[in-house]
Amino acid sequence: MKKSSFFLITIFISATVLLSSFTNLENNTFNPPNEFKTLLNYLENNVNYIENELPLIMADEVKKNYKNSKYHIIDIRANSWFDYGHIKNAANVKAENLLTYFENTIKPSDFDKIVMVCYSGQSASYYASLLRLAGYDNVYSMKWGMSSWREDFANNSWKKNVKNDFASKIETIEKAKPELGSHPNLNTGKTEAKDILRIRLEKLFATPYKEFIIKSIDVFENPNNYYIVNYWDQEKCEGHIPGALHYTPNASLSKDLLTLPTDEKIVIYEATGQKAAYIVAYLNVLGYNTGNLAYGENSFMNKVLKEKGRDAFTKKEINMFPVVE
Question: What pLDDT is stored for residue 5 in this prediction?
Answer without folding.
Answer: 47
